[in-house]
Amino acid sequence: MRKLDESLLTGLPPFRSLSRPQIREILDAAQTSRHDAGQPVFSEGLPVDRFFLLLDGYIRVQRTTPQGDQIILLHIAPGQLFGIGAALGHKTYPATAKAADDCVTLVWPNRLWPDFIARYEGFATQTYAVVGGRLNDMHSVIVEMATKQVEQRIAAALLRLITQMGRKVDSGIEIDFPITRQNISDMTGSTLHTVSRLLSAWEKDGIVASERKKITVTAPHRLVLLSGVTP
C-alpha cells in the first residue's frame, strides 16, 4: 500500500492536537493490515502485543461466556483506536475483535504505547474519552438487559446501531455493515427465534426492511417508541 498522508488522521481522536510532523512520525511507525470479513483481528485471552486504528470497515467486539455462548459487546466504526489494552492495564485481550466486514487497520507494537503517551500531548486524554464513551454504551446495554423486555432491548440495539453506524438511504437508515439476526440475538441476550419473530412482525408493520445480512430502519420514530425511550 502506498504511503499514507498525514491528513488521514488530522481530524481523528487522539490525533487532533498533533502537528503534521508528529502525525507523520506515528504513521511511519505503523504497519497496514487487511482483515477479511469474519476474521479475528485479535482473540480473547491472547497477550496484548499490538494496538490498532480502524481505517475502513467495522469491527465487532465479542466475548465468550463460560457456557460457550457469544456475546457481542459493541461495534467499532472507522477512525477509532481499539485493542488498547495497555491503556487499561490489561496483559491479555479481554475480548475478541472480529472484522464485521472487510477492514483495513493501522497496527503498532504495544511497546510504542508508553512512548506515544509521553511524547504526544492530547494522545492519552482523547483516547480515554473514547474509552469512556464505549464504557457508557456497555453500561447502557447492561441496564437494558436487567430492566427491559426483549422487544425493547432489540429495538434499543437497532437504534444504537443506526445512530452510530447508520447511513441514509431512500427507504430509511441502513446499518452500514453486514449484520445477521444471530448477531442481534448475541447483542441482546435473546434467542434467534425471538429476533426473527420480531423483525418479521416489524417488517410487516413497515418499521424495518431486511434482506440477507442487511437491515434498514424505515420508521425510526416508531422504533424509539418500541424501545421504551421517551422521545
Structure description:
By secondary structure, the protein is of the alpha+beta class. It has two domains: 6-136, Jelly Rolls; 148-227, Winged helix-like DNA-binding domain superfamily/Winged helix DNA-binding domain (Arc Repressor Mutant, subunit A), CATH 1.10.10. Helices cover 37% and strands 25% of the residues. It has seven helices and twelve strands. The chain has helices at 20-28, 113-119, 123-147, 150-165, 181-188, 192-204, 220-227; strands at residues 31-35, 40-42, 50-56, 59-64, 70-76, 81-82, 96-99, 103-109, 166-169, 172-175, 208-211, 214-217. β4 and β5 (70-76) form a beta hairpin. α4 crosses α7 (220-227) and α5 (181-188) packs across α6 (192-204). The protein is globular. The mean pLDDT is 91.
Q: Any idea of the CATH topology of the largest domain? A: Jelly Rolls
Principal-axis shape equals: globular
First-residue to last-residue Cα separation: 46 Å
Number of helices: 7
Number of strands: 12
CATH class of the largest domain: Mainly Beta
Instruction: Give the quaternary arrangement of the chains.
Output: single chain
Characteristics:
single chain, 231 residues, alpha+beta, Jelly Rolls, Arc Repressor Mutant, subunit A, 2 domains, four-stranded antiparallel β-sheet, 7 helices, 37% helix, 25% strand
Topology:
Layout (H helix, E strand, L loop, with lengths): L19 H9 L2 E5 L4 E3 L7 E7 L2 E6 L5 E7 L4 E2 L13 E4 L3 E7 L3 H7 L3 H25 L2 H16 E4 L2 E4 L5 H8 L3 H13 L3 E4 L2 E4 L2 H8 L4
Antiparallel strand pairs: 1-8, 2-7, 3-6, 3-8, 4-5, 4-7, 9-10, 10-12, 11-12
